[in-house]
Amino acid sequence: MLIINATGNLGNEPEAFQAGTIPGAKFNLAVNTGKDETTWLKCAVFGSSSARVLDNLKKGMKVTVNGTGKQNIYQKNDGSEGSSIEVTVLRFDISFPPKEQASNVTPFTKQKSFDNNDIY
């Protein structure tokens, strides 16, 4: 079993599924692992967290997932060997971009220091 902690961008809209009587949601996560290299993780969330995934995550969003994973080896159509990493997500966090600053606000760049002489 692998412990997975990865940040990436959703490659698709999350999809609902049912695992017996347990609701689930699945999505693909693109993780940049080097210059011009991307690793794709197949993520699955189960239970009540699946509703939060379906309601809040959208394609392209930056997300951090924590969970357990396993690598699957399979044979591609051309006969070569391929592999995938499947993650059972136990926790996820959404990374929001910083809010844009209003154009009429001047940023406060320097703070004045006060000592006892300034007070009296």
Can you describe what's shown?
The protein has helices spanning 49-56, 116-119, and strands spanning 2-10, 15-19, 22-34, 37-46, 62-75, 81-95. The chain has a single domain (2-96), classed as OB fold (Dihydrolipoamide Acetyltransferase, E2P) (Beta Barrel). The longest helix has 8 residues, at 49-56. It starts with a strand and ends with a helix. A hairpin with a 2-residue loop joins strand 3 and strand 4. The chain has a five-stranded mixed barrel with strand order 1-3-4-6-5. The protein is mainly beta and 120 residues long. The radius of gyration is 22 Å and the shape is globular. It is built from two helices and six strands, in the order E-E-E-E-H-E-E-H.
Which structural traits does this protein have?
single chain, 120 residues, mainly beta, OB fold (Dihydrolipoamide Acetyltransferase, E2P), 5-stranded mixed β-barrel, 2 helices, 10% helix, globular, disordered C terminus
Overview in brief:
With 120 residues, the chain is mainly beta. The protein is 10% helix and 55% strand.
Instruction: Report the biggest beta sheet as strand number plus sense, adding barrel if it closes.
Output: 5 strands, mixed, barrel
Enumerate the spans where pLDDT stays under 50 for 5 or more consecutive residues.
104-120
Just give the CATH class. Mainly Beta
The neighbouring-strand order within the major sheet is 1-3-4-6-5
Radius of gyration: 22 Å
The helix/strand class is: mainly beta
Helix content: 10-25%
Q: Tell the overall outline.
A: globular
| Count of beta strands | 6
Give the averaged pLDDT, no decimals. 82
What is the fold named in CATH at topology level? OB fold (Dihydrolipoamide Acetyltransferase, E2P)
- The N- and C-terminal alpha carbons lie at a distance of 65 Å
Q: Return the domain count.
A: 1
By CATH, the superfamily comes out as Nucleic acid-binding proteins
Give the count of helical stretches: 2
Please identify, by name, the CATH architecture. Beta Barrel
Strand content: over 45%
**Helices and strands, in N-to-C order?**
EEEEHEEH
